Amino acid sequence: MTEQLLNPPAAGASLPVAATPRWQPLRTGLVDIFHYDYQEFWFRDGRVLFRGNNGTGKSKVLALTLPFLLDGDLSPSRVEPDGDREKKMEWNLLLGGKYEERIGYTWLEFGRVAEDGERLYLTVGCGLRAARGRGIADRWFFVTSQRLGQDLFLIGSSGTVLTRDRLTEAIGASGQVTQRAEQYRRMLDEHLFHLGAGRYEALINLLIQLRQPQLSKRPDEGRLSQALTEALAPLDQAVISDIAAAFHDLEQQRDELAGLRDTSGHVLRFRARYQRYAAVAARRQARVLRTEHSGYEQQQRDLAEIREQITQAAGREQAAQASLDAASTELAEQQAAKDELAGDPRLKSLDDAVRHADEAAGQAGEAAEGVRRGAASAEGIRAHQDEAASAAGASRADVIAAAASLRETGAAAGIGSEGVLTPLFLPDGPYGQPETDAARRAMAGLADRRAAALAHVTELAEAVVSREHDLREARRRLSEQEAARDAAADKLAGAQRGLDAAAAGHVAEWRGYAGRARALGLPDLILPDPDEIGLAAWAENLEGPHPAERAMREAAGTAERSLARAAAAADRELGEARQALAVLADERARLERGETDRPRVPYTRSDGAREHAPGAALWQVTDFAAGLADSQRAGLEAALEASGLLDAWLTPDGRLLDAGTHDVIALPGEPARDSLTRYLVPAIDSNDTQARALAADRIVALLSSVSAVEVADGPYATCGGRWRLGPLHGSWHKDHAAYVGHAAREEARRRRLAELAALISAAAE
């Protein structure tokens, strides 16, 4: 919401009300800081908007409230958005010399609704006191459940701002007041965030980093990334382990998938090449099969023609045999008739002979006619016989030709012999029934034998065909196996060459990797030469674990352990350096605020023994007399510090502190000659309420009881650094005085700041 200018609210005035279960800022304000006497700024829904012209103080309000009230560090580098070290916090109170001394407050109110409906409030703030020439003389932080303007008022009834003591009384048991920023941050974390010291600091650093002006114009990626990383909640180690395992499995699956893809590509290329090879081989094998099958079919056709010729020759032979049988029958009948006539008795008498002659003539004529007819018939028979002989010759020639053809076919087939075909040839003549029967029987027997042989040959041919088919199949498989063998041999040779090249490349890569690893200069990293671990031999047979990987893992384990030790040592040194840097930075911030160093507190002093006790330490209420040289100042302060007098407590009434409070008290004694009053004078700070309780004569009395020269009896502290207190005596040396007198303290502060600048620079590096 817009900037609101308010007077201090009266008791019971209407204040913003908590409305959410989480802590939200409700109000913030400034009291006697910058140009504000009292100023409140209200939030709405945890947000605030500042509007106004340049120079009205918008950035200054933010610098003095957030994140300063969450950090508690007064260093300009953390308070100012631009990190300008020249903008001191004391300027916001003194306004460059407008005020001599001023006390101011900056505060912030949070609110939330509890689970039972109760509204809870928490007010946090910082009080500052600045004085001219001293910077920030004091600071304190407070955390309270009281609400400003209702339960707590930072401006008293007299119109003056509350001091630290009065604020502590006003808060009482409702909160806590502390001067330590670390304790203040711890209280904020316990009430608001519950993050822990580390994460809380990281969150504040992130807020300071992000609120820098013009962050986009001058980005520091490294610091911003580091701040964001440190502000994040730590991840569960189980989640990290699961993610790492998942990434490892994913990487393995990716490698397996790449290997499968390569294998698939090789298989596809091999299948394409083998398909072409199989097609060519199949065509070659089919050509032989087609040729053999064509020859077999031609032989079957030739065999059928021979069988047809044999059948035709047998028919012609049977016709010739029938004609020969008819001629033989007719010849036998004529011979019988002739024999019958020769034995007739009628031819015995003449008459009978004449008669018989006539009859015989008639019969002779008839016989002549019969002879003529017989001659004609014989001629016909002879002609028929000649025809039959010719036919038989032709048949014989056909049979011989057929037998020759059969012999040739059988010889070609490898199943014929001369002795088997001899019975088929008839004698030259005559051709009687026995010869033809014998020839017929021989032909029939030969035909039967040939039929059986043919059946056997057919069976053998079929077996041959089957065996040839098996042979061709076996040859095809053999060819395929030989092709596969050749391809495998080629592939093996290529793989061997690839293996040799990969092995050589692997050895070379290992050499390069080992060289690069050695170049890193890691401690205890020893990577052996490939020849020493037998990497080339392993690459040939791949037997056993990978020697280079084993050597690398052993070297990596050794280097990792060395690095872990080095990292632990570096982290420890870094932590110590950061702690030392933080201590130096805190010391510089304290000195830059105008605070000065105090003598070291001995462990024999009770905590808080001097916090509310009236009085002051000797160094706080004295100063060097005019005219002392620097060496005298340093020597005298060294003697006082070594003896314990420098930080001894002076009380107004000379009494010891309360029982149970442990401290060193300085009481005046008998006056000494050449006392310290020649070199030290009282110097009481009027702004120090505890020191104002001392009287100057009390300090003079104490200085008068200590001699400034060496004496035989009594205490003394010389400008040469020598001292004595009762039975104790000793000496010390300092280059410069650092505690006695405001000028010495201021000079020591500036000198220490110069030293801190060099120390912080070295520590930062």
Task: Describe the 3D structure.
The protein has 765 residues and is α+β, with helices and mostly antiparallel strands. The protein is 56% helix and 10% strand. It contains 18 helices and 13 strands. It has a 6-stranded antiparallel β-sheet, with helices on both faces. A 3-stranded antiparallel β-sheet has the order 11-12-13. Strands 7-9 form a two-stranded antiparallel ribbon. Helix 9 packs antiparallel against helix 10 and helix 9 (237-342) runs antiparallel to helix 12 (433-519). The longest helix has 106 residues, at 237-342. It starts with 23 loop residues before the first strand and ends with a helix.
Number of strands: 13
Output the strand order for the largest sheet: 2-1-3-4-5-6
In helices, the fraction of residues equals 55-70%
Report mean pLDDT, rounded to a whole number. Answer: 77
- Helices, by number, come to 18
How far is the N terminus from the C terminus? 44 Å
Largest sheet: 6 strands, antiparallel
Care to give the gist of this entry?
By secondary structure, this protein is α+β, with helices and mostly antiparallel strands.
SSE arrangement:
Layout (H helix, E strand, L loop, with lengths): L23 E10 L2 E7 L15 H8 L2 H4 L4 H4 L11 H4 L6 E13 L5 E13 L3 E10 L19 H8 L3 E4 L2 H13 L3 H14 L10 H11 L5 H106 L8 H63 L4 H4 L11 H87 L10 H4 L1 H7 L5 H46 L23 E2 L4 E3 L5 H14 L5 E2 L29 E3 L13 H9 L11 E2 L4 E4 L2 E4 L10 H23 L1
Antiparallel strand pairs: 1-2, 1-3, 3-4, 4-5, 5-6, 7-9, 8-10, 11-12, 12-13
